[in-house]
């Protein structure tokens, strides 16, 4: 079999301590999974069922990258997140078995064109252009569960140019990692290479060209990205 066009390269993220890379299949993102962030976005943090949006697999950006300030926005925001990496397929997974499907964890930064998101919300439209644009998923090296265990508590922080902007704890997630994995598996079959960005604590804010943005999560190394000039 041949293809009409050359197939795109496989999107991938780094694996800590290895030259191997982990192929990315899909990127799911949990919306408003920290109560304080829900409040700062003007929403009631009651424990309603989690909701998801997606980013394309090839939106991934490695630690240490410099990326051009994206087009069509004047309000690019950072969002520090714990990333769950799926290593075993499953559907309708019981919560008690959900962690068996997790291969590892990474630090992430869910870059967001906030002005486009606000416009989409106001008009009742999808968030795709606000969340799923090129190079919008900054993902650090993945650490296997065999090395770091399962992460359920500990600081999650973000700084811009050395100044702390977000300071939360993983235990503040409204929906825990096993709950998120189990809930997602009721809607779609999760498979190896699926990434789940689990939401951000309060303190989101804007980035401008020249900013150096670092995410740190207890048990994982720092994740840094630099915002370059407008593309």
Structure explained in plain terms:
The chain has 231 residues and is α+β, with helices and mostly antiparallel strands. Helices cover 15% and strands 35% of the residues. It has 5 helices and 18 strands. The strands form 4 sheets. Strands 3, 4, 5, 8, 9, 11, 12 and 15 form an 8-stranded mixed beta sheet that branches. A 5-stranded mixed beta sheet has the order 6-18-17-13-14, with no helix packed on it.
Number of helices, where a helix is a run of at least 4 consecutive DSSP H or I residues:
5
Order of helices and strands: EEEHEEEEEEEHHEEHEEHEEEE
Proportion of helical residues: 10-25%
Low-confidence stretches: none
- Class computed from helices, strands and strand pairing: alpha+beta
Silhouette: globular
Mean pLDDT: 95
| CA radius of gyration | 17 Å
| Sheet having the most strands | 8 strands, mixed
End-to-end gap? 37 Å
């Amino acid at each position: 079999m041949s293809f009409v066009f050359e197939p795109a390269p496989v999107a991938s993220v780094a694996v800590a301590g290895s030259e191997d890379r982990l192929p990315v299949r899909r990127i799911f993102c949990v919306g408003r999974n920290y109560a304080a962030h829900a409040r700062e976005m003007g929403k009631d943090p009651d424990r309603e069922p989690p909701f998801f949006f997606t980013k394309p697999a090839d939106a991934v950006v490695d630690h240490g990258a410099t990326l051009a300030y994206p087009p069509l926005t004047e309000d690019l925001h950072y969002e520090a997140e714990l990333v769950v990496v799926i290593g075993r397929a499953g559907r309708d997974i019981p919560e008690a078995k959900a962690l068996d499907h997790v291969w590892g964890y990474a630090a992430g930064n869910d870059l967001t064109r906030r002005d486009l998101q606000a416009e989409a919300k106001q008009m009742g439209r999808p968030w795709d252009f606000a969340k799923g644009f090129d190079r919008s998923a900054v993902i650090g090296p993945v650490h296997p569960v065999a090395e770091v265990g399962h992460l359920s508590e500990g600081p999650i922080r973000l700084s811009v140019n050395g100044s702390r902007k977000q300071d939360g704890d993983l235990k503040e997630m409204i929906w825990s990692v096993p709950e998120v994995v189990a809930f997602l598996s009721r809607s779609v079959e999760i498979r190896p290479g699926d990434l789940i960005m689990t939401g951000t604590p309060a303190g989101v804010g804007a980035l401008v060209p020249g900013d150096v943005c670092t995410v740190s999560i207890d048990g994982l190394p720092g994740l840094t990205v630099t915002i370059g000039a407008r593309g």
